[in-house]
Design goal:
The complex is a heterotrimer. Helix content of chain A is about 40%, strand content about 10%. In chain A, helix 4 links the parallel strand 2 (about 80) and strand 3 (about 120-125). By secondary structure, chain A is of the alpha/beta class. In chain C, strand 2 and strand 3 form a beta hairpin. Chain C has a two-stranded antiparallel ribbon with strand order 2-3. Chain C has a domain at about 1-60. By secondary structure, chain C is α+β, with helices and mostly antiparallel strands. Chains in contact: A-B, A-C, B-C. Strand 2 (about 65) of chain B pairs parallel with strand 1 of chain C.
């Protein structure tokens, strides 16, 4: 695999660039070629910017020659979820209503990527406005799981996870409101990190639920996530909710963890996030991983978070409420789609808004807007949105109590492996259950990582292992995640993705 | 839309009903940048030149609070004797309108930054305490231009053009509690409250306070209750009443209209009404129904504002003199009667008169020009006296020219004509129109001789010692000189020649 | 599949919440979405099921529990009153469906200015 740059991790690519073994242009071309050959089947990308990526790669190579590198990942290409504003590149959020919209500005995360010299390959597919757990709610068609093209890649960031899993990009950016980075990571055998709320700027991230959204790394290794996280994280004066404190040493934590020693680390297994109704193969892989952590020296305790049972309900009140207001701006007046009611060239602004929003939003978006409108309506606010925000306090208190007993908390990332495309499309409740284990972290604002835990016995599909840490202690996720990754790779004799089927056309 | 509301005579309204007033005043702050972004706030810029992703509501953009706007809000609250919240939040007010970029307004809901204050308002020497319910921070909307219709109005327009320069400019909304017991003085109390509030805002320096440019906008709430019942009636909200005079007229009109509706035994619709400056009537806007559900919730993109007591105290130190105390001081300094002072405040001319006096004009002269000649002209145009194209410096200069004998009052009025016509400074107008009094004795002497020759009978009477008859000759001279003569000097010449 | 937690009524107050077709139509009106009859028929029962499962939340947290919206309790995040560069009118209007006189051209507005 010497010449196949797409199989390398971002850290390896950075080393190869530093050693002069290759160029950013060569690496970027390799990934663009890979996209050309497999993305017809995977459909991870909504937009590929080959000329832009090559130009940025050329600029990176020039910087390298001049000795003016911008970061450790200068020249390593990346894919960006289509929910982040990219100046000059289409940004649709997977919705018809934004078809063709080209933002006149960059999200802060995107600005940081450019400032760090990472060529942007393109924009990745997602559930419309990040509402979903399967990427089937994209208005531009679903993304397919590289492990089995008939299955979902998770969601809402299925495009970013699949792009990384299919070796179309070494790195990607995702966003996680209730698990949209971690759950796709779990079902595609990749790594995904949701940072502490406020740890990565949300400026330019098209909001789904403002109080829950976080952008984060989507990669194949824990170290790559740490490298990327250090580039995109940190305080942003344009985001009022951004934390004005330096990031912990994430790369250092990942390297420390990869050494395999977890002596003195207390790991809490959340009792409420496993058990009946969870896929046996997922639970088996989870237990094995816990055993490996014990073997690495960790002390494992059981913790209970009793109010987590209300997390899903709180989430499905807060998210639709905030989303219903956020999505009001898509009204056909200033940008995006404008649809006139049929046969009504004299329609009023309000009628055009109604027609456009009916035509431009998909079913899931409409469901959640209606639900959120209901939850915020006079007479319901206290009972629903108000209560849900209080339940967040209870959940945060559960976390606080658990973190008294343990340094990190663990659970399977998702209850099942990837299901078949179409299987749950018209059963919103069943779809929502995919996020059961990931939602509590968003409600409390704490960081979490999903690391591949192996393949479930019954279907041979990837399962994920979730590690949660207290707010601001993202480094703990990296340390424990890297230790588990190293232990599992030892056991498997290589990364899990080596077991993924080759894609046709590759 | 009913253009032909029947009205009840004002005195008859009061025979049967008690009015309850409420005022919501929006003050556009004069910060350099907008409420939640760094865009400039200049009035009258080219359309869509003062916008960014945040105030344009582009997907992904986020707000950050302008600290100066918070300071201004706190200072306004303190000046209105309000409590300042220990902790408060912004909230989203959700409703769709094309001039609102996000289709929600970032405002404050149940946690305003200032609450529970009051302002003592003087009307005809009587003090009314207007209780302030709250003062909160919010953002302005864009502006729509309605095209295709005949009048530029919204009705009949074919489409509209939106400019978002104004969107996101910080506003402070000041809301009174119901003002009860004003009776016949309700229109005057409303006007005096807005006038005094405007003076306060000017003194605080937090706004341009130009009602004509919309930097202060008043919404007038009014309801009537059967006399003595104490039961509040259904209210209407008359929007965007943009002059002091209109505030008074709008209250008067709504009282008369409400009474007519109630006298018929019909109900007042709870609705928004629009004030028409030209016709002096209100027309129906949109009905406030249950369907209007703003779905307020705390703005999740902003964090709470928790002003420390130290900060509040620091801001308290910056407050200007209390307007009531200031009025008393100025009245004493200027030697104005109560009536003079009431007229001055009522016309909103306190500041401009103070500036005029500061520029060297004697107080009574300053009052005479502003409340006499200039108020009359403003009234003819239906605008505030301060909205005329005449400054305190202009008035001071005109008076100086009178004092040094260059002008008399009649010529001074012509200078004001010139100022209003945009002909330049007072001195330029005097030169341009050739208005200066002729003090050349040669020319005057000839004119006096001519007058004596033309009026031998009058001349004879003066020679006989009937000095009072001189007026007729002086009048004839002034006529010949087109008024550009010093009447005193003419009198001297007449008497010199005939005695 | 696991049950929706809390919906059993074991912890929260289990509430039967039904959302009628008319109510959905009213909400769609508030949200400015022109739902067709078929969409209304389809959405109303789905929303009832979802609502029923989330309604369990009422009564879970008492009055003494404060609300949370951020992992860290931040307050007073401000910017100085300084003008910063924004968009050019060309950039601002680039995505507009229609432009006239350097303004966003929108269909006629019914009703009066808010």
């Amino acid at each position: 695999m010497s010449a196949d740059w797409t199989r390398r991790t971002a850290a390896e690519l950075a080393d190869a660039l530093a050693a002069g073994e290759t160029t950013s242009v060569e690496i970027t071309r390799a990934h663009l070629d890979r996209i050309s050959s497999v993305d017809g089947a995977v459909h991870a990308f909504l937009h590929v910017d080959a000329p832009g990526a090559i130009a940025q790669a050329e600029a990176s190579d020039a910087r390298r020659a001049a000795g003016t590198l911008l970061s450790s990942l200068d020249g390593v290409p990346i894919a960006v979820k289509d929910v982040l504003a990219t100046e000059g590149l289409p940004t649709t959020c997977g919705s018809r209503i934004l078809e063709g919209w080209i933002p006149p500005y960059d999200a802060t995360v995107v600005r940081k990527l450019r400032d760090a010299g990472l060529p942007i390959l393109g924009k990745t597919n997602m559930d419309e406005f990040a509402m979903g757990s399967s990427t089937e709610h994209s208005a531009y068609g679903p993304t397919h799981n590289p492990w089995d093209l008939d299955r979902i890649p998770g969601g809402s960031g299925g495009g970013s996870a699949a792009a990384v899993a299919a070796f179309e990009a070494p790195l990607a950016i995702g966003t996680d409101t209730g698990g949209s980075i971690r759950q796709p990571g779990a079902v595609t055998g990749t790594v995904g990190v949701k940072p502490t709320y406020g740890g990565v700027s949300r400026y330019g991230l098209v909001a789904l639920a403002n109080s829950l959204d976080q952008a984060g790394p989507v990669t194949r290794t824990v170290l790559d996530s740490a490298l990327l996280h250090e580039i995109i994280g940190g305080h942003d004066p344009k985001d009022s909710t951004s934390i004005d404190q330096p990031l912990p040493a994430l790369v250092e934590a990942a390297r420390l963890g990869a050494g395999g020693d977890l002596a003195g680390v207390r790991v809490g297994v959340i009792q409420e996030l496993a058990g009946d109704g969870w896929q046996p193969g997922v639970i088996t892989r989870f237990q094995e991983s816990v055993d490996l952590l014990i073997k690495a020296g960790a002390e494992v305790v059981e913790v209970s978070c009793p109010t987590f049972v209300h997390a899903l309900a709180a989430y499905y009140l807060i998210l639709p409420a905030e989303a219903s207001s956020n999505l009001a701006k898509f009204d056909a007046m200033r940008y995006g789609l404008r649809v006139w009611p049929e046969g009504r060239p004299d329609a009023s602004a309000e009628e055009v808004m109604r027609a456009t929003r009916d035509a431009g939003f998909g079913d899931e978006v409409k469901r959640r807007i209606i639900l959120g409108t209901y939850a915020l309506s006079s007479g319901y606010y206290d009972a629903y949105y108000g209560q849900a925000q209080k339940v967040r306090t209870l959940i945060a208190r559960d976390f606080d109590a658990a973190f008294e007993k343990a340094d990190v908390l663990v659970s399977p990332t998702a209850p099942t492996t990837a299901f078949k495309l179409g299987e749950k499309l018209d059963d919103p409740l069943a779809m929502y259950l995919n996020d059961l284990a990931t939602i509590p972290a968003n409600l409390a604002g704490v960081p979490g990582i999903s690391v591949p835990s192996g393949l479930a016995d019954e279907d041979g599909l990837p399962a994920g292992f979730q590690i949660l840490a207290p707010a601001l202690a993202d480094d703990r996720c990296y340390r424990v995640g890297a230790a588990l990754e190293a232990a599992l790779a030892d056991q498997w004799g290589g990364p899990l993705l080596d077991k993924a089927p080759a894609l046709e056309g590759a | 839309m009913t253009m032909t509301d029947t009205l009840v005579a004002f005195d008859d309204v009061l025979a049967s009903y008690d009015p309850a007033l409420g005022l919501e005043v929006h003050v556009e702050l004069n910060t350099a940048s907008k409420m939640f972004c760094g865009c400039p706030t200049e009035f009258g810029a080219e359309p869509n030149t003062q916008v960014c992703p945040t105030c344009l509501g582009l997907p992904g953009a986020m707000p950050v609070v302008n600290v100066k706007a918070v300071e201004s809000a706190i200072r306004i609250g303190l000046a209105l004797n309000c409590e300042i919240a220990q902790w408060c939040r912004f909230a989203r007010k959700n409703y769709f309108y094309p001039d609102m970029p996000k289709n929600f307004q970032t405002s404050q809901y149940d946690e305003p930054i200032c609450f529970e204050g009051f302002m003592d308002v003087e009307v005809d020497g009587e003090t009314f305490r207007v209780e302030i319910e709250r003062a909160h921070m919010e953002e302005d909307t864009g502006k729509s231009l309605h095209v295709g219709g005949a009048t530029g109005r919204i009705h009949g327009a074919d489409h509209s053009l939106v400019d978002y320069n104004r969107a996101g400019i910080p506003l402070i909304e000041i809301v009174t509690k119901p003002i009860l017991g004003a009776g016949a003085k309700a229109p005057d109390v409303a006007r005096a409250y807005v006038a005094q509030l405007r003076d306060l805002i000017v003194a605080l320096g937090v706004s341009d306070a130009r009602m004509d440019q919309g930097s202060i906008r008043a919404d007038v709430n009014l309801s009537l209750s059967p006399k003595g019942s104490g039961v509040l009636g259904t209210r209407t909200e008359t929007k965007n009443v943009n002059s002091l005079r209109s505030v008074e007229r709008a209250v008067r009109h709504e009282m008369s209209r409400h009474a007519a509706v109630l006298d018929r035994g019909t109900k007042i619709l709870q609705e928004t009404r629009h004030w028409h400056e030209d016709t002096g009537v209100t027309t129906s806007g949109r009905e406030k129904s249950d369907a209007e559900d703003y779905r307020y919730f705390p703005e999740p993109d902003l964090v709470p504002v928790a002003p420390s007591r130290a900060w509040v105290d620091e801001l308290r130190e910056t407050l200007p003199e209390n307007p009531t105390a200031r009025r008393a001081r100025l009245q004493a300094e200027w030697g104005f009667s109560d009536l003079d002072m009431r007229d001055t405040v009522g016309a909103g001319a306190l500041d401009v008169i103070e500036q005029t006096i500061a520029a060297g004009t004697p107080p009574q002269a300053a009052r005479k020009w502003w409340l006499g000649e200039l108020a009359r002209r403003a009234n003819e145009d239906g605008i505030e006296v301060t909205a005329l194209a005449v400054t305190a410096a202009d008035v001071a200069r005109v008076q100086a020219l009178v004092d040094d004998g260059t002008l008399n009052d009649k010529l001074a009025r012509q200078v004001f004509d010139g100022l209003l016509a945009g002909e330049g400074s007072p001195d330029e107008i005097v030169a341009g129109r050739g208005l200066a009094i002729v003090s050349d004795d040669g020319a005057l002497s000839t004119a006096v001789d001519n007058a004596i020759a033309a009026n031998p009978d009058v001349a004879a009477k003066i020679r006989d010692g009937k000095v009072a008859a001189a007026g007729a000759l002086i009048g004839a001279v002034m006529k010949e000189m087109s008024g550009q003569a010093d009447a005193g000097r003419v009198r001297e010449l007449v008497l010199e020649k005939l005695q | 599949m696991p049950e929706i937690p809390g919906s059993s009524g074991a912890r929260g107050t289990s509430a039967r919440v039904e959302i009628t077709r008319d109510e959905v139509a009213h909400l769609a009106n508030l949200a400015r979405i022109d739902l067709s009859d078929e969409e209304l028929d389809h959405l109303a029962p789905q929303l009832s099921v979802i609502l029923e499962s989330v309604a369990s939340i009422s009564g879970v947290a008492g009055d003494d529990i404060p609300p949370t919206s951020h992992a860290l309790p931040l307050t007073n995040v401000f910017r100085e009153d300084v003008v910063t560069p924004g968009l050019t009118p060309e950039q601002a209007l680039a995505g507009a469906p229609e432009v006239e006189q350097q303004r966003f051209s929108v269909p006629r507005i019914l009703g009066e200015e808010a």
